[in-house]
Each structure stands twice: as C-alpha cells, then as structure tokens.
Prior knowledge:
This protein is an alpha+beta fold.
Amino acid sequence: MTTSPWPRRVGDLLLRDAVEADLERLLVLRNDPVANRYTVRTHVPADDLRREWLGAPDSATDFSCVVESGGAVVAMGMLDVVDGGGQPGAPTGTDAVIGYLVDPAHAGRGIATGLARELLAVSFDQLGVRRVTAICFTENPASARVLEKAGMRREGHRVQDCWRADGGWSDSYLYALLRSEWRPAP
C-alpha cells in the first residue's frame, strides 16, 4: 500500500486528506449544481461520499485530496491510479486520472491550476506513473485552460462520449501528459 502523499502546500493552499469534519462541506460542494455543472455524476449520495473520501487515505489507488484556503475547504482534487491500455501482459498501475472541483465562490483565483499541477507532480514524482489523463467537456473552456496551463496537451476531441442528465450526449476533450514531458514548476 502506498502512503498518502498529503499534506502538501501550494502557495496559500493546503492539500490534505479528507477527515470526518469535512464531509458536510464536501457533500454541499460536490452536489452544488453550479460547481458540478460539468461533471458526469451530478449527485453523490452522502454514504457514497463518506465511503469514497474517508477511504482514500488507506487506498492503494485513490489519492484524492481536499484543498483548504484560509482554513476553509474550497476545492476537491481527484487522483486515481489506474491500469494502462489493458493489453495482456501490460504492467498495472502505470497511469493516473486527475480531476478537480472548485467552489464557484473561489473560481478564477488559480486554485484549479495550482491543484492540477500538484496532482501531476504527485502522480509523476511520488507515485511514479508514466502517464496522466484528464477530461473536460468541450463547453467548459475554463477547465480546458486549466489543464493546458498545468502543462497537459489536448490529445483528443471525443464526440458525444459522455451522457449528462441535464443535456444529453456531450463532447469532451481528452488531455494527457507523459512523465517524460513533465516539467515541474520552477
């Protein structure tokens, strides 16, 4: 089992494991219709959120974190280590998928970009994965900018690949970065 990479500081942000006291705030943030407008899973039941977030520190594959600014939780960072392409004989646990959800009241302050960069740093420098991917809906240009500012490259435009209860089939962009392409912040 890999040890949790948290806590870590990024400027004035504290990235850390979730604790019981965070659950109510995380549930409100995760189920906020403005915050989750561009997520596939727009509602998470309290029991599922509790199990997922409190289980992350002991997981061998889930390295999700909460983000604090000024003592308040302002974002959630998701980092899951996954298997690569699935070909027989391929090594396991070589890839990671990242994502983020920022409280709309704190949007536009660089939180998502700092968080995405730190999720990449943990993926490559601490967990040793070879490739990290992320997706965003094509109608969410702010998220595409975040991923590009974090150093990822747009690898694909996937047509009608995600179902959204509030809008039907949607297109998404696939972003990726290889460890050999990773450039830590100066």
